[in-house]
Amino acid sequence: MTKKNALYCQSGGVTAVINATACGVIETARKYSDKIGTVYGAKNGIIGALREELIDTSFESDQDIAALKHTPGGAFGSCRFKLKDIEKQRAEYERLIEVLKAHNIGTVFYNGGGDSSDTAFKISKVANELGYPVNCIGVPKTIDNDLPITDTCPGFGTTAKYIATSIMEASLDVESMAESSTKVFVMEVMGRHAGWIAAAGGLAGKTHDDPPQIILFPEIPFEKQAFLERVKYSVENHGYCSIIVSEGVQDKDGKFLADAGTVDAFGHSQLGGVAPVIANMIRDEYGYKYHWAVSDYLQRSARHLASKTDFEQAYAVGEAAVKLAIEGKNGVMPVIKRLADKPYEWEIATAELADMANVEKMLPRSYITNDGFGITQECRTYMQPLIEGEAYPPYIDGLPNYIRLKKTMLSKKLSAFDI
Amino acid sequence: MTKKNALYCQSGGVTAVINATACGVIETARKYSDKIGTVYGAKNGIIGALREELIDTSFESDQDIAALKHTPGGAFGSCRFKLKDIEKQRAEYERLIEVLKAHNIGTVFYNGGGDSSDTAFKISKVANELGYPVNCIGVPKTIDNDLPITDTCPGFGTTAKYIATSIMEASLDVESMAESSTKVFVMEVMGRHAGWIAAAGGLAGKTHDDPPQIILFPEIPFEKQAFLERVKYSVENHGYCSIIVSEGVQDKDGKFLADAGTVDAFGHSQLGGVAPVIANMIRDEYGYKYHWAVSDYLQRSARHLASKTDFEQAYAVGEAAVKLAIEGKNGVMPVIKRLADKPYEWEIATAELADMANVEKMLPRSYITNDGFGITQECRTYMQPLIEGEAYPPYIDGLPNYIRLKKTMLSKKLSAFDI
User: Fold this and answer.
1) In angstroms, rounded to a whole number, what is the distance separating the alpha carbons of residues A326 and B352?
2) How far apart are CA B322 and CA B320, in angstroms?
3) Average pLDDT rounded to a whole number, residues B343-371
4) A262 inside 8 A of chain B by CB
5) Domain with CATH 3.40.50.450 in chain A
6) What pLDDT shows up at residue B272?
7) Which of B78, B176, B407 to mutate: most A Cβ within 10 Å?
8) Chain B closest CA to A10's CA: distance in Å?
9) Which of A202, A191, A177 minimizes the C-alpha distance to A274?
């Protein structure tokens, strides 16, 4: 059997370690060059695959590929584009197969989150139906940590470490100023649907008296009065109050607080940010001086503060994906299986994409304290190992030495395709 | 001559390395224990001194004092409180002298920025006039980098490194998503009066085509049309646009953009944040998808990403302050003197507080490019060495192992004093 090439796609929001996965895929494929051909990177994910915009990674040196390990963002480009069912998007599927066929691609590595598992699953099924068999391997990634089956999702551990470290540092700042200045600090974190990232902030303190004294989860309907009383308690007893708020916090009617009627000078609503909404609420009630932060993309690109655990898992799933491909597997995803909590032990297992697609793993209620403002020991036991260890990037002139690939494009063989 | 004790005060906004300065003061005083008595820390700065709330650092172990080197925030507490002239606040000055006298304090180390130099200078003069001679030594600190004479201010280099690293990382994220998602990223930074911190963001790129493609300085009156055209150019030519905006950006009439008429649901103005104002402006004009971040206190407490240069200078000014005290100096401040740009060489020099007080060092116009959106080579030559080197804190369980001191309070000898 002639060996075939492979296509690697990054999909959805990128992370600080998704390129470590890319590195795992490419380095492993190079190691098994007798069994697998060139890895092509889809430029901007599936969009690039459909447009036949393929990056030939064979032009990238071993050294540059290795540098992907410590470079955040998506080195090949990613996209938010979900393939629908074949009945609705037959043209796209046929085009994809045409592209794969034109470049002798036998394996697709689809590196993404929940929606991506679904896309990868569809590709794995449809290709066979269309008469060009392709092994489609999902590779997990998402800071949202909401994939089922896997113990955690590569990208989450680093975001968690960043959030916990940041709130710990900012809280020390607020604590030192509180007597005569800022008494309340509000930090907004990502996670519109699930409170995994918000929960990570709780790792910064050991008890509910430690900062962050309050965490607002999307899972817990926001009750203004109870919240304000808790703020007051914290300021009166600790001198200040440090708060993590998830962008997804909703009131009891399911309305996002971030959409709570903020308008700009032109009358446009949703200037954005739940942190200022929360901060203003506190000011209106108590007049406390406040500060707020929205770390936004900083929290998913903070490679400078990568969790070693997360980094190693990100590489390992890339490596495992190639091995699964070599074994001829299709419609599967390498996942992380926890063997022990402390010290943390894990191994790579294999899950069916059919079981991964479109399932969101929510933060269990048992991970949140009864009062709804903190995390439980059960949550700590789960989350603690995921932020452990440091995996610093190299620095040059005081800044991380991140790589930009050459991205040599493969010559197109097909006509253009509009998407 | 009997040796006297010393008082150490932290003043104004704290930094990621102000405790390294505290460590420099205390470790050096311990080394010269034949010449200088105990260092007392004023709880929450000058407020604590006036209230006779003094922390006895002799109860802190050598190990805990050493841990201050890698702990952000103000370990003794800081405050925003400026002593006026003696004619206006005679009672406060007399009280301060009374406290110093009661605890046999012969030296005051005043660790702060511009306002603090002024306070330290006044104390140094007034004490003598009131018949209790005190050596008052200013110790520089401020992320704003706006003290005169000194090459840089301890705290700034770390903030600069954090801002440059963060915009570099977030820009890689945006770049990878831009084809189908976010095209504009806006990051707000501190610096209401001067653009030093905003300028630091420019270190992330080498040319004006690298991110951040646009920096908005408080020194350059904001021109909406020119700005929007630059955003468009960047999106059309690079696929995305990454923007640093200083909180202090003003229009040509001197009005802060952050105050540009934003009102919340209750009609209250100034929800805060110039980043969302800028982001909305772009959305209204072009409809580009955007994200924005406000790092706020994170940028001045990011000890996890300290600049080694900054860290070493922070320690050195603390050490030098004690040596100046031992030499019997009064009304002075150890400052940093640049000897060479590359490789960076510096030494500690001594400045008169009279020359430091109430002088703000502004970002030179020659540090900003002609178009007003970037930094010049002259700026890079100055700023580059300040972010160089890494000085990581130790980690435990995946988080920085920051210290909280015991803060054993000295017994009060005086009656209460209202401030």
Assistant:
1) 72
2) 5
3) 95
4) yes
5) 5-142+304-359+389-400
6) 60
7) B176
8) 9
9) A191
A166 contact residues in B (CB cutoff 8 A): 298, 302
| CATH superfamily for domain A156-301 | Phosphofructokinase domain (3.40.50.460)
Q: Would an 8 Å CB–CB cutoff place A175 in contact with chain B?
A: yes
- B261/A265 touch (CB, cutoff 8 Å), yes or no: yes
Q: What confidence score (pLDDT) does residue B268 get?
A: 45
Element (H, E) at B29: helix B18-31
Q: In terms of CA atoms, which chain B residue is nearest residue A80?
A: B180
Query: CA of B35 to nearest chain A CA: how many angstroms apart?
Result: 30
**Binary contact (A293, B296; C-beta < 8 A):** yes
Q: How far apart are CA A346 and CA A351, in angstroms?
A: 15
- Residues of A with catalytic function: 144
Given this model, what pLDDT does residue A269 score?
Answer: 46
* Tens-digit pLDDT profile for residues B92-112: 999 999 999 999 999 999 999
Q: What is the DSSP string of B32-49?
A: TTTT--PEEEETTTHHHH
In angstroms, the CA B68 to CA B389 distance is: 19
Could you tell me how many CB contacts below 8 A there are between chain A and chain B? 252
CATH topology of domain A5-142+304-359+389-400: Rossmann fold (3.40.50)
Nearest of A301, A55, A101 to residue A190 by alpha carbon: A301
Looking from the CA of A195 toward its CB, the CA atoms found within 13 Å total 28
3-class SS at B285? helix
User: By three-state DSSP, how is residue A52 classified?
Assistant: coil
CA distance to partner chain B, nearest, from residue A26 (Å): 19
Q: Which two tokens stand for residue B299?
A: 């940028």
Q: How far is CA B290 from CA A188, B242, B282, in A?
A: 17, 10, 8
Task: Specify the DSSP element, H or E, that contains A95.
Answer: helix A90-102
CA dihedral A173, A189, A79, A81 (to 10 degrees): -170
The ranges of chain B annotated as CATH 3.40.50.460 are 156-301
**CB distance from B195 to chain A under 8 Å?**
no
- What angle is formed at CA A135 by the lines to CA A360 and CA A76, rounded to 5 degrees? 70
Top CATH class, B5-148+303-359+388-400: alpha beta
**Preceding peptide of A211 cis, ω within 30°:** no
Give the residue range(s) of CATH 3.40.50.450 domains in chain B: 5-148+303-359+388-400
SS3 of residue A101 by DSSP: helix
Three-class secondary structure of residue A168 per DSSP: helix
Give tens-digit pLDDT for A180-226: 999 999 999 999 889 999 999 999 999 888 999 999 999 999 999 99
Would you state the structure tokens that stand for residue B219, as one six-digit string?
């020194």
Q: Which residue among B144, B146, B151, B310 is the active-site one? A: B144
Any chain A CB within 8 A of the CB of B111? no
Residue B132 near residue B170 (C-beta atoms within 8 A): no
Q: Which residues of A touch B390 (CB under 8 A)?
A: 392, 395
> What pairing do the DSSP bridges indicate for beta strands B105-112 and A395-396?
unpaired
What pLDDT was estimated at residue A264?
44
Spell out which residues of chain B touch residue A75, defining contact as CB-CB under 8 Å.
176
The per-residue pLDDT for range A292-327, each reduced to its tens digit, is 999 999 999 999 999 999 999 999 999 999 999 999
DSSP lists the bridge partners of residue B333 as B351
What are the Cα distances from residue B348, in Å, to A237, A269, A406, B204, B338?
A: 42, 53, 45, 29, 9
A402 vs B172: CB contact, 8 Å cut-off?
yes
Cα–Cα distance for residue pair B61/B40, rounded to 1 Å: 14
